[in-house]
């Protein structure tokens, strides 16, 4: 998984101000499964953002690093810096959109 964290760190460019929404999930988590279609429809709503879904069970070092103990867990990065965590238990497309909109303006 260290190779993977390096890949994530390359994907999250520290020299960039780009925002990336990262979803940590596990294949067997039903909340992850119900969240997936919402997450997958976000890029159409926010074409300037980048989106990445990671299987947390495959990348435990990464999960530890960013404190993503429970899944699904959504972190918004600016460059390589975690800026905000989506904490709503109400995981709908609307709450996700509101979260992104409030964080990115």
TrEMBL record:
Domain of life: Eukaryota
CC terms in the record's Gene Ontology section: cilium
GO BP term, pick one: cilium assembly
SUPFAM superfamilies assigned to the protein according to its UniProt record, in alphabetical order: Thioredoxin-like
Annotated InterPro entries: Thioredoxin-like_sf, Thioredoxin_domain, TXNDC15
Residue ranges crossing the lipid bilayer per the database entry: none
Thioredoxin domain boundaries: 16-100
Protein's UniProt name: TXD15 protein
